[in-house]
UniProtKB/TrEMBL annotation:
Keywords: Membrane, Transmembrane, Transmembrane helix. InterPro entries: Caps_syn_GfcC_N, Caps_synth_GfcC-like_C. Residues 57-168 form the Capsule biosynthesis GfcC-like N-terminal domain. This is Capsule biosynthesis protein GfcC. It comes from the Bacteria. The chain crosses the membrane at residues 36-54. The lineage of its organism: Bacteria, Pseudomonadati, Pseudomonadota, Gammaproteobacteria, Oceanospirillales.
Amino acid sequence: MLNLYNPPIRSEEYNDEAHSSMTLCQQGIRVMCRSIGYILFTASLCFTSLFALAQPVKIQLLQPQIMLEYGDPVRLSQLLSDAQKQVDYPVYPLGISLISPTKQGQIEEQKRLIFSALETINTKDTQRIAEQLKALHFVYREKLETHLAKVRSIKKNNPLLTADYTLSIPSRPPHIRVITPKRTTHEVVKQSPNTHLKNYLTPGIAGDDYDSAWVIQADQTVQYIKDIQWRGKHHYLSPGSIVFVGLDDLPHPYQTLNNDIAQLLTQHLER
């Protein structure tokens, strides 16, 4: 006899088909959730960016002592232009300093490590260097292009400033500073073009047994110059630069101390 009714669906087949349907449904839900999550994340980033762009910015000028206030973040070019309108003298671009108050802790830590090393070595030379460094003022100077024409003409030189800063816009100084282990006070020497480096390092300032020095230009560029005594090469020293004659015979754990001091000197602020 023929079976005229449909055979029953086995429970295994039913479960497989149901499970397949549920899996597809769950996958669809997951994809939809991911899409919604991405949209929400993107919206959050946009909102955060817009919120940041809406923050006012305050710039404290050191010359003169006034505050520039902006309702929104400001381009460096705009700030430099506005700041230079506040003074009645030619601004020295290499000496311009954009100072970050929130990063001053990094400078204080640099100073702490250097003074600790000088104190640990504890020789007459390290004591003299420590005394000269204590007389200088160090701040966190952002490394930026400060020639207004170059800031305006090259996009990467013109960042959007979104935080509060202090700005120093000095006039051109007539001098350079010389720091050596032979003195307890640093020497201020008149800057002269086309002058041999060793002419700044007279025996009365640097002694006669040095052979190298660090030059820290006003724009924070550092040069290490060797064979000063016998090479007659001219080295341009920008007004406001610093010449640092390093310490000799440093103990092995402090081999980088001279370089560390040179890097700290890039954060010196003329006052």
